[in-house]
Amino acid sequence: MENNDKLIIAGHEFNSRFILGSGKFSLDLVKAAVESAGAEIVTLALRRANTKTEYNILDFIPKTVTLLPNTSGARTAEEAVRIAKLSRELGCGDFVKIEVIKDTKYLLPDNYETIKATEILAKEGFVVMPYMYPDLNAARDLANAGAATIMPLAAPIGSNLGLITKHFIKIIIDEIKLPVIVDAGIGSPSQACEIMQEGADAVMINTAIATAKNINEMAEAFKLAIIAGRKAYLAGLGRVLNFKAEASSPLIDFLEDK
Amino acid sequence: MYFENMEQINSDMLEHVLNLTNSYDYNIYTKDDVQKTLNKEILDIEDLKVLLSPAATDFLNLIAHKAKYETRKHFGSSISLFTPLYISNYCENQCTYCGYNCKNKIHRGKLTIEETEKEFQAISKTGLEDILILTGESRTASSVEYIGEAVRLAKQYFSSISIEIYPLNIDEYKYLCQCGADFVCVYQETYNKQRYKQLHLAGPKSVFEYRFYAQERAALAGMRGVSLGILFGLDDFRKDAFSTAIHAYLLQQKYPDIKIGFSVPRLRPYIHEHKEQNPHYVNEKQLFQALCAYRLFMPFSDITISTRERAIFRDNVIGVCATKISAGVKTSVGGHEDTAKGDEQFEISDSRSVAEITDTIKQKGLYPVFSNHIRL
Asked: Which residues of A touch B (CB under 8 A)?
């Protein structure tokens, strides 16, 4: 099943639906985590990669993965655009995760500025993956602005609080045609599994693995949970668990029509 | 009274900080209060009061665990490294506790722009990309233009530039921001106005209010972040630490997009030290209690640990409550590349090099971060 079931982002195919965040790791552990997670996409903060030292995160991420630089540090659309362009200049490719954050306490994204940045960068040929607060209207605007995916948050970054916005994410999954990647807040493999089973296309994990006692084991646990959740989604949840009216199984044929 | 040319802004933050501090009686809190606070997810001002109380002292280990949990949650394994560079130690202030007091007969000096560049090069070679540029307070010896020139030059070598200089007006902060500075550190030393007056006998620093509003002026000028702090050992540390945290809290409420940082310097011996016993002496346990209180009350803020502390203390607070550590530190004017041009402000307790501090961070399973900022 895995071979045919690809995650497709702007025409790029991925076998793994596990996107690993790198910002909270010890660098020498990133590689092992990528391998245990089977991750094919790794995010990194450009402000961390823009360094001359031997501690450049770029050197620790295996060359086989797709880099997803983020614009963390940006407070406005304009700043996010500048960081994205710098990222391209530094050779980090065309993928960019838009993060526009004006609030240093909860680090909640500013949807309005995010939409503006998405529009500009999509026109310039970037594969734009905006991190957003799960609001359906904003998600539609992002899709119209040229986003390649939608990345709604499950809970505030680093909070490990889990799927506190689950119902709103589900609305976006149901209404938006783009891949939906749940980003931020997922604290345990069971939560990753749960949202995958609801139809999320991928999840992004950082803190939950970086702060686990055994990083490699936890990375693998997430990998398995994401695969399990995806399989459950594709298999269709049992009817007792998930009521969905289906016209294919007639229940009213006995009714007289005259 | 403000000096001529000191800008006054329309803000009532000081009143709020002082009112809350005046009504803070740390002796009323009990073990039960501490336990309640420790069981809470999101802490408020009452919890801050509890955490800084003597009652909390008995729970220091539990508090430390909670602090570590929050630090890991917000910063993961990251520990940022930086180093300070003093470019001038001329000073017009008369602060009774400071080595740079203008009445002190110390060796004064100031780096030329060529000497500053050599220092930058030497620091940059160690791998550091985050620099803190410091001066004494003298608008004649180290003018805003002189500092601006150093900042512009620093841009070529560092991704993050902080300044710890005398408080400025908004347009002056704007100017330094345009030159490339993004972070401003100003320490109130003590929030007790009477005590402040006794300690700051003359010079512009004697104006308590102008200093207090420095962070707000920096925020209004477009700086990315501000740091606050007191000098532990000048007055009642519980009240002073409380004021600092409230000041930070109100700044974050009013300017939610600026980064807030705390520094926790403790009074150290300096040249011409007064030898009598300090009634406000703060021991390591107490300093640690304040550090943890900052972390738990504002879990997203940066906390910097000074080289005034012993290596073993510094090594044990990073990752638990501190997130930023200086390395390869000199508190003399220059001294990274050439011999120092001016005497030190204070003695340091941890003289380890950047490489040594980096190794320590790694040994602890933490991640040394050299660059964490993009100048935009």
From this structure: 23-28, 45-55, 73-75, 79, 82-83, 86, 102-107, 158-160, 206-207, 210-211
